[in-house]
Amino acid sequence: MNGSLHSSSNVVVIGLKRGPAGLGFNIVGGVDQQYVVNDSGIYVCKIKEDGAAALDGRLQEGDKILAINGVQLEDRTHKDVVELFRTAGEDVELRVLKKLSRHMNGPTGPRPEQESPVSSLGILAALAGAAALVAFIYVRHLRKHF
């Protein structure tokens, strides 16, 4: 089943007023376009700068939208959900499963862009080690032939 066991502390209700550019965010997912493996849920993929969602500040990229104006989004196609958003009216109520943060006591927003699961320094160290190993093997190979 699609996320039927959600911790109530991670589920929030967010009310947004549609602005000139809509609600101000993009979505991904659906039963026909899974964004997360084995999960056909609808996720926020981009918050548009100065849009209704950005100005409100509660909705974040990576949040899972569970319902729009009380209509559950489970087991719906992407196109069906887009249509629900288009016809939702000016005042829209979203039931949202907040993205879990990496640290229990850390910030709940998205990670800074310069931070990644594998650090750049770690990648450079691995590449340097591999280059040293290749050079060592090459030099040993040359010594055997002369």
UniProtKB/TrEMBL annotation:
Q: What is one term from the GO cellular component aspect held by the record?
A: cell junction
Where in or outside the cell is it found?
Mitochondrion outer membrane
SUPFAM superfamilies per the UniProt record, alphabetical: PDZ domain-like
Q: Which Pfam families match?
A: PDZ (PF00595)
Q: What SMART domains does the record point to? A: PDZ
Record-annotated PDZ domain positions? 13-100
Question: Which UniProt keywords are listed?
Answer: Membrane, Mitochondrion, Mitochondrion outer membrane, Transmembrane, Transmembrane helix
Could you state a single Gene Ontology molecular function term?
A: protein kinase binding
Q: Which GO terms describe its biological process?
A: cell-cell adhesion; establishment or maintenance of epithelial cell apical/basal polarity; receptor clustering; receptor localization to synapse
The record's section on InterPro entries has: PDZ, PDZ_sf, Synaptic_Scaffolding_LAP-MAGUK
Membrane-crossing ranges are 118-139
On assembly, the entry states: Binds (via the PDZ domain) to isoform 2A of SYNJ2 (via the unique motif in the C-terminus). Interacts (via C-terminus) with RALBP1. Interacts (via PDZ domain) with ACVR2A (via C-terminus) and ACVR2B (via C-terminus). Forms a ternary complex with ACVR2A and RALBP1. Interacts with MAPK12. Interacts with DLL1; enhances DLL1 protein stability, and promotes notch signaling in endothelial cells.
Q: Which PANTHER family match?
A: DISCS LARGE (PTHR23119), DISKS LARGE 1 TUMOR SUPPRESSOR PROTEIN (PTHR23119:SF51)
**Protein's UniProt name:** Synaptojanin-2-binding protein
Q: Which organism is it from?
A: Xyrichtys novacula
